[in-house]
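Table S2 (text version). Query chain:
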Amino acid sequence: MSSEGGNKAVVAALLANTGIAITKFVAFFLTGFSSMLAEAIHSVADSGNQGLLLLGGKKSQKDATEEHPFGYGRERYVYAFIVSIVLFSVGGLFALYEAWHKYHEIHAGHVDPVDDWRRFVPVAVLLVAIVLEGLSFRTAIAETNKIRGQASFATFVRRAKQPELPVILLEDLAALLGLVFALVGVGLSLITGNEYWDAAGTALIGLLLVVVAVVLAVETKSLLLGESAGAGAQLRIVAALESTPGVERIIHMKTMHLGPEELLVAAKIGVPRGVTSEQVAASIDAAEVAIRGAEASAQVIYLEPDIYLEDHVPAERPEPPAPAGH
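Corresponding structure-token output:
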């Protein structure tokens, strides 16, 4: 898949969150509800995160260099990991701190209740924000449905190699739930006159963002470490190799994503005894063409010919050198 679908969802979320953040700040300054401040900072963090995803996508398109011979495809994973850090710190931890601060202000009697028309501003802002976030979430779901196949959304988030859509899906889901928490907290505070509901709503927003940030960090870390091709892609590559004339079998094979749409394939293949070097070279060339025809993301391919021996015992690997200074 190209990154167009992911970018469309990112841009939709960026536009929605920028406008929502402004209205939430206005509502906070008019009323002082901590849930509104937590949600405003949440929207600012989300807007910054979407900017980071777009920047990562741009940087990943740089050509390979001598220092980075496999290119910059993983830039998208790096920026997605930064997103999880921003969401955890700027969003989650700030909301938890604001909930703690608001609780102590209420306990000390330093909170003045809002009794005029301003008390309805947060409710109106939150309802509008829910609609806008819902539209952004719908765009993310529509783009995800184009590529997730029969997989559930949870499975898609775990297995997707393109970081943008899983990030936007989780961020938009967290945003909608956070808005519901804020609406309940503000609404109950207005109905009962008990400001502790506002502090509770803020705390729930913080806990939600921390959980989502941890999930994003875990999934993105796996991509940064280097994930193999999906099961379907591996089956297509194996079938292409095994059907190539001159390839008797696959002795072993490893794959790794150099980026969302770029796959490294390294395999040792068994060739018949007695063949010439020209015949081996022709088989390797044909195998590369077959692999790329079966799996377009297989951009970097290394094939090592060998004679398969059933009772062969690989030589032991030498111990790695000691770290410098030891």
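Notes on Table S2: The longest strand covers residues 249-259. The chain has a mean pLDDT of 86.
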